[in-house]
Amino acid sequence: MSRQYNNLLFYAIASLLATLSALTFFLPFAAIFIMLASWLITVKKWSYPAVLLLLFLFVVFFYRVQIDQKTNVTGLNETQSTFSLTIQEVPKIDGDKWTVTAEDTGTGEKLLLHYKLRTPSEKQHISKQPFLGQTCTITGKLIKPAAAANEGMFDYKSYLAGKSIHWLLEVDRQGFSSCEQSNFHPLYFILMLREKGISWINTVFTEQTAPVAIALLFGDRDYMAGDIQSAYQKIGIVHLLAISGSHVILLIGMSYYGLLRIGVTRQRSITILLIFLPAYTILTGLSPSVIRAVSTAMLVLMQKRWRRTDYSSIDLLSIAFVIYLFLNPRIVYDIGFQLSFVVSLFLLLSTTILNQTEKKPWKMYVLTAYFCELSVLPFLLSYFHELPVLSLLANLVYIPFYSVLLPYCIIVFLLSMLFVNMTPLLLYPLDKLCLLSDWLALTAAKLPHVTMIFGKPDKLELLLYILLIPLFFYLYEAFPDKRKSIFLIPLSLLLFQHAGNIWSSYGEVVFINVGQGDSVLIHEPFNQGTYLIDTGGTVTFQQEEWTKRDDRYEVGEDTLVPYLKSKGISKIDKLILTHGDLDHVGGSVAVIKNLQVKQILMAKTNLKLTEEEVEIGELAKKKNIPVLFVEAGNHWTSRDAGFQILAPIADADYSSGENDGSLVISARIGGLTWLFPGDIEEIGEEMLLNKKTDLKADILKIAHHGSKTSTTEDFLHAVDPSVAIISAGKNNSYGHPNKGVLERLHAKNITVWRTDVNGTISFKYSQKKGTFFLQMP
Fold it and tell me: 22 and 66 in contact (C-beta within 8 Å)?
C-alpha cells in the first residue's frame, strides 16, 4: 500500500477499539473494528498486509489491556498497619488535612495517605518537612475508597483504580516514626523544582496574579479561589487555565528563538528542546493535555531534526495517541485525555474549512471556538450534564486575553528571579487585568440561565452524538452551499435529548444517598411535576480558622445538585423542607442557587425558625421564590399523583422539639401510597394517632433515620407498610438505624432497604406500575 496522509489515524482507532473491547468486554467494539477493516479493504482499497497490521495492532492492544487488568490489583492486606513508604510527590495541606501519594517499598503499590493535623504548630512543622523522595515508616489504617453512591455520579474508587491506587491510608496519631532520604531520582529533582517555582510565584507575585500564574505556568489550579474556578466553568472558559497545545507551541517558539539569538545552531536547538520537553511535562504536573501536546511537538521536532519521514499532523497525533494508550490503557477513561485528543483531532480535520476563512479572521475565530465545543459535546454532557450558554462569546473575549497573559507571565516570572524589586511594577498592569477578568467572570456567572441543563445522555443519545457529530463535520466540508441547514444536526441532537427529559413516560421516586441526612426526589412522567423533599446537609461544627479547608465537601453542591443535573432536572416545582435540621435543609442553598425553584414549602408551627431556615428564606426572597408555611389539610394534585399534608397539626404545641414539628406527607404515586414523616419522634407519632389520621401506606420512609425515638410499635401498626426505607450515613456516629427499630420491622416481615447499605433507592414507574432499583455504594 502506498503511504497516504492520515492513514495512521485508522491504526489509532483500532487501538482505541481494542482497548475499549478489553476494558468493557463489550462485543460491539470488536464488531465496529471488523466493519472498519472491511471498509478499508473495499472502499479505501487497503492491501491485505496493511489490514493484517491493523489486526495485529488490535490483538496487541487487547492483550496489553488484559495484562494491565491482571496486574492492577492490590497486594496489601486490610489488617496491615505498618508500612515502609516512599513519598512520590510534594504533600498538599488544606486546612487540617495533609495528603500525599506514596509507594509501598515491599509491594510497589501506591497508597493515598490522609493525615489530620492536630495543632497549628504541627501544621507549621509538617509543612516545612522535605518529604519528597523520602522513605518513611508510617502506621495507620487501610480504608477502601468509596464507590459512586448515586447513579451516574463520580466514582472515586474507579478514579483511583485508574491510577493504580486501591487503598487510602489513614495515618494515625503516631504519624511518621522515621524518614530517610532515598537515592537520587531525576523525577524527584524536577518535582522539587516545580514546588520551588510555585513557592517563588506565591512569594513575589501579588495575591491576585499568583493563582493565575501558577495555573498557566505549572498547571496547578488548586491555588485559585473556588468561586473563581466555578465562575470560569459556568461561562465555559476554565480550559484556558489548563496548559494546552498553544502553551507548548508558544514555549517552544520562545525557547527556539532565544537559542538561535544566542548563537545555538538550529539542529542543536531542536536537540535541546527534545531533552527539555519531557522535563517540562513533569514541571507542569503530567496532565494528559500536556503529555499529548509535548509528545506531538516532540514528534514534529524529530521529523524536522532528522528529515527522514514526512507525516501529516494527524499522523503525528495518531502516533502520540497509540504510544500514550499503550503505556497507560486506563487513561482512556480520563476526561483530560479524552478532551485533549478529541479537540486536537477535530481541529486538524477541520483545517480545510478553517483555511477557507483566512481572509475573514473573525469568522475563523468563531468557527474554531465552535468546532472545539461541538467536538467535545458528548463528553461535556456525560461528565457535567450541562452546557455553558455564554461559552462561545466568553471564549471570543478571553482567548485573546490569555494569549497575551501567558507570555507576559513567563517573562515576568523569569525577570522576577533577576530583578526582584521590579516585580511589583511589572505586575501592576497584570494585576488590574486579572481583577477585571475575575469580576467579569463572576458577574457573567450570576446571570440567569447561564447554563442549560440537558442531563447525562443515555446509550442511544450518546451513540447519536458519536455518529452524527463527525457527520456534521463531513457534510460541512463536502457541501459548502448547504452549511446553514447542516447546523440543524447538532441542534436536533440537543433537542432530541431535551425532549426525552420532558416527554419521558416514566416517573421516579428516588431516595438519594446523601449520607447522614434525607433527600427524596419525586419526578412525575411527562414532566408533570418535580418535587424535592429535603436536601440533606453536611453537619459542621465550629472550627478554628487554621483548620478550615478550601476543598470542603458539601452535600448540596457536591452530591445533590450534580445528581439532579445528571437527571436533566433544571426546575423544582416544590422544594419541601420538612424541618430545619441541617441534615435535611443544608443542601437547599446549593439547590436554590443552581436550579430554578418555583416554590418552597415549610412546616407551620409555633417553633422559631433555625438559622438555616432564615438563610433559605432570605435567599428565596432575593430570587422571588414564594415560601409557603403549610400544615395538616393542605394538599395538591397533578395528573397522576396526589399529595396530602398530615402534619404539623394546626394549633398543636411542638415545644418537644424541631423533629416533632416536621412536615408529614402522604402521597399516591405510581399506584402506591407513600408516607414521608420527616424526623417525627414518639410524641409526633402519638399526635397523628390521636387525631385518627389515616396513615396506611405501602411504602414508609422511616422517620429520623431509624432512630430509637421513632417508629413505635403503634405507629408501625397504623401504617402497615410492605416496604420500609431508611436514609442514613454509612458508619454514622449516631448508631442509625437503631437495632430495636430494625427488629420491629423484620418482625412484621417488612422489606427494609437502607441508603447506607443499598445506596440510592429508586422506584421507576409507568402507568401506575413500577419497579425498585438499588444503586450499591
Answer: yes
